[in-house]
Amino acid sequence: MPVRVRGALCPLLSLLIAGCASDGSAPDLLGRIERLRIERPEQEAAALFLDKTLQRSCRSDCRQASLDDRRLIELAAAAAAVNFYHPGSRVDAHEMVFDALVSRRLAGPLEVEDLHRTYVSARRWQDARRLAERFPQVKLESVPSEIYAGPERPGSPSVWKITPGQDALRRESLDLSRGSVLVVISHPDCGFSRRALEALREPTLLGLLPERTHYVTPPFGRIGFERIRRWNRDFPTQEHRIVDRYRDWGLTYQSWQTPTFLLFRSGVLVATLQGWPGPEQAEKLRALLDAERVFQARDDPLRERN
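and the corresponding structure tokens:
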């Protein structure tokens, strides 16, 4: 699946996904999904197209004999693609097609990896662990064994914290509603992210960061738990947490390219800065943060005070 990538951004597909189709044999179906994603990203048109395609091809059971193997493999790739672009939106559809692949002995390592990625992107951690136990011969990313889904705060996006010293994940809520909040979307495996994060540790930028600055990884299906764990140990002031549901943020797919800087003011997104082509981006971020500091220092009646 191709993805449009601007300069100085880590491509989501190359960073987080190795590929959806097992053999690249579905250009028509995948091409249609890709085109719909680009043309109508906010309407989930690709997901609705998958629904109609499955209804025509499978109805309620993709194991029917009239469905040929090639079409079944195409449907599996399409379901993987939709769940990549819209995490958690069509997990049941992917499971239905995968079960049909298994019944015909067509589920190879890449198909197993695709479903595992769908489970992880939907944050269905236990399902991902069970799939790994079911197919021990397939090398899949290990998911922490202990999951603590704490209470959610209405209106606040949730993130997953990798608990230091434990094989555990804990869900927390981010409060974006008070004052200035900077959210940095980045990933330790992204070279552009690492350069940006290094710049943020420099005094000229560090002193401008809002007190509430959060570092989060994109809401997709390959996490890199061990890499994040090591990063959090080495750079505790830039602890990365994992976004739970992308829908909670109201952002487009392209907004999750890394690195991206989101500035919220009293819960409202007021500025976005994407990419890290070089030192000039530090100047842009510095200007943005300096302007926000000036704004917050004014006697502004809309500013919520602690």
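(Above: one complete record from the training split.) The longest helix spans residues 279-297.
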